[in-house]
Please model this.
Amino acid sequence: MSKRPIKSNPCVDTAPSTQRAVPSSVADDAIHAVLDTLATSVAVVDLRSRVKRLNAAFEDLLGVSRRLVVGAKLTSHFTEPELLAQAIDATREDAFTVTRFEASLQPDHQTHALPVHVIVSRTDEPDTVMVELLPLDKQLRQEREERLVDQALANKELIRGLAHEIKNPLGGIRGAAQLLQMELENKALHDYTQVIIHEADRLQSLVDRLLAPHRKPHVVGDVNIHEVCERVRAVLLAEYPKGLSVQRDYDLSIPEFRGDKEQLIQAVMNIAQNAALALGDLRARGKANITFKTRVARQITMGKVRYRLALELHVMDNGPGVPAVIKDRLFYPLVSGRDGGTGLGLTLAQTFVQQHQGWIECESEPGSTDFKILIPLS
Ligand SMILES: Nc1ncnc2c1ncn2[C@@H]1O[C@H](COP(=O)(O)OP(=O)(O)OP(=O)(O)O)[C@@H](O)[C@H]1O
Ligand SMILES: [Mg+2]
Model:
């Protein structure tokens, strides 16, 4: 796709509006409140690209607090700052120009640049320009998430049905093998009945794990996400006292929410345990790192429902990354990339988080894996 700015003349009336005598701070607050309700990322910058206003969606995209961005140059957040600078220059020369181009945003603390569609146009305020961003992958991702949510629901029903069907005859098989063993005089044949009993027990515990989230009552209380993180952190550090550091990067302003604390601890624990296991080699060299990062996200869509506010909990590690062959099926039951894994940890984590109307997603490459738990707050 071309990265050259494309100019066009809009068919909208861009004549300056009459300015009303409203005290500027009140007017600013009102403008911010309106901008914050937009799902699109919008910033108002001056002709030297210094940010005057920024809405919540833009703040989320940059991953930086508005306080740090206002007054600074917006161009510094783009991998090719000259594209934005050119577009702003174009509006300076011709107030009716609207420039559209594709660019890459470099959000703070992220290794990946984010491809965005940028629209630059003049505003009614003198010498200011409006910059709108549309993340290019957002639409595609939203469609994919909706499909995955439907698929996860269908999977859950299938698993529950299958688990019940397997569970019922298991007791009978085990009991019959025990009776048979008692009747067998030839002790050498006991090895065979033991195999049946052992395998029946293994299947029983697998089925119990599969049914666990559906059996346990959902105990709802006030949950502080940081208490959840701290519990998991304490267990991790006790289990892996050497070579692993577990960092915290908390946004302590995240409010408490109604939820099942034990379920959420289990979900975060399953994710963090996977990370700790994947970090085996780095632990041995004292270089393993897991980070718990919490943030507030605004205007989030999950499973076709739009939420005003959500919490984001990232469990990040510097391990080798999720094996490519299982990346697309990571949350499916019985999908495992390690010896001895049952492949249920992430399925259960996803189920627990979904019971909070939330969602888990994963981005992973060698050296950087990020499991993001999203839970709506309002
Ligand atoms: N942080 C991570 N880094 C690398 N690989 C990971 C990470 N998290 C998960 N994986 C991969 O995803 C697979 C599936 O994880 P999941 O927790 O569902 O099952 P499991 O760990 O294999 O078994 P268990 O049921 O005991 O948890 C893991 O086997 C591992 O290969
Ligand atoms: Mg696991």
